[in-house]
Design goal:
There is one protein chain. Helices cover 15% and strands 50% of the residues. It is built from 3 helices and 9 strands. Strands 1-9-8-4-5 form a 5-stranded mixed β-sheet, with no helix packed on it. It has a 4-stranded antiparallel β-sheet with strand order 2-3-7-6.
């Protein structure tokens, strides 16, 4: 085996560092549509129904349940947002509170029908690492990369509305 000279070794290190600057973590986000409610790590149940609200017009309630596939676990670094759109322009982003039940996540939101047509639900979970702090206590670190899914509720109105 031929040994590298110090200049060749230095050049190799510089090339590796330069290449690493162009490496990116990947966040894979899948669009959900009726009949396609599963990605590589979870299945999604989307229920949409009209809801009567006291002293208001009828609104629409959307309940999203996320079940990790058998060999997958939910990342502790996760979140969901509801984005209100006006055409292709974002008007507002609202973080949604999660409910964890039997290893499944559930999110829900209620909107007036005129806002529902231009809204988007997005769920993301980041990759993570477990470590310990300087006191030896376990900590969870979010790291770049991960997976998630999004959908437009209007795509599911005729499929699940009751």
């Amino acid at each position: 085996m031929k040994h590298k000279s110090p200049i060749q070794a230095l050049f190799t290190v510089v090339l590796l560092i330069a290449a690493s600057l162009y490496a990116h973590a990947v966040m894979v986000v899948t669009q959900l549509k009726p009949g396609a409610l599963q990605d590589s790590w979870a299945s999604y149940d989307i229920q949409i129904k009209d809801t009567a609200v006291k002293d208001a017009d009828t609104s629409t309630t959307v309940v999203v349940t996320i079940s990790p596939l058998q060999d997958r676990k939910l990342s502790p670094v996760r979140g969901a947002i509801l984005e209100i759109l006006d055409g292709s322009k974002s008007v507002s982003e609202i973080p949604l509170e999660e409910k964890l039940m039997d290893g499944k996540l559930q999110f829900w939101f209620r909107l007036s029908p005129n806002l529902l047509k231009d809204s988007k639900f997005t769920f993301r979970q980041n990759a993570f690492a477990q470590s310990k702090n300087n006191k030896g206590e376990p900590v969870i670190l979010g790291i770049p990369g991960g997976a998630g899914a999004y959908f437009y509720p209007r795509d599911f109105l005729q499929v699940t509305k009751k």
